[in-house]
Each structure stands twice: as C-alpha cells, then as structure tokens.
Amino acid sequence: MPCISSFYGLLIYMYGDDHNPPHFHVNYGGNWSVVDFDGNVMEGELPASKQKLVSAWAEIHKDELIANWELAKNKETLVKILPLQ
Question: How many domains does the chain have?
Fold first, then answer.
C-alpha cells in the first residue's frame, strides 16, 4: 500500500485493490483509520485536531484522490499528493 502523502505526523495510504466506497487509510501514531473522500472517518478514530487536518486535506485534494482511486482500480502507479501546509 503506497503512501501518497504525509503531514503533521499523518501518513496517507491508498490500496490498489480496495473495496468501495472510495476511501484512503490514515496512520497516526500506529493507529489506523479509514476515511472517505469527504474527510469523514468510516472506521477507526483520529484525535479531533488531526481529523480536522485530514478533512481539510481531503477537501483540497478531492480531485486528486478520485484520480488516484481510478489508478488504483486499474493497478497503475499512484501519484503523490501534496501535504497540507
């Protein structure tokens, strides 16, 4: 599972053979969460401050997340996404 972005201790991953609905995985301090492209946590949990950062990042980069999801479905190389700054 490639890391597509990282910022403020958050590591963002996307699987190549994952299930719907479209989502990404977040590792923060060894704890994993599954987050949809609107920034909502679907599984796991994040501290509120980190959840806000992930949601803001997802909103800014939604088109890139969708493009990576399509690449992943086609088993193509994913593109790195700029971190939240």
Answer: 1
Give the model confidence (pLDDT) of 27-72 as tens digits.
Answer: 999 999 999 999 999 999 999 999 999 999 999 999 999 999 999 9
Alpha carbon distance 79, 54 (integer Å): 18
Place of tokens 């977040």: 26
- pTM exceeds 0.85: yes
Q: Is residue 39 domain-resident?
A: yes
Dihedral sign, Cα of residue 53, residue 9, residue 7, residue 2: negative
Q: CB count, 10 Å around CB of 23?
A: 23
Decide if 84 is inside a domain.
no
| Nearest C-alpha neighbor of 54 from the set 32, 69, 36, 39 | 39
Please state, in angstroms and rounded to a whole number, the distance separating the CA atoms of residues 30 and 44: 12
83 in any annotated domain: no
Structural domain of 46: 3-73
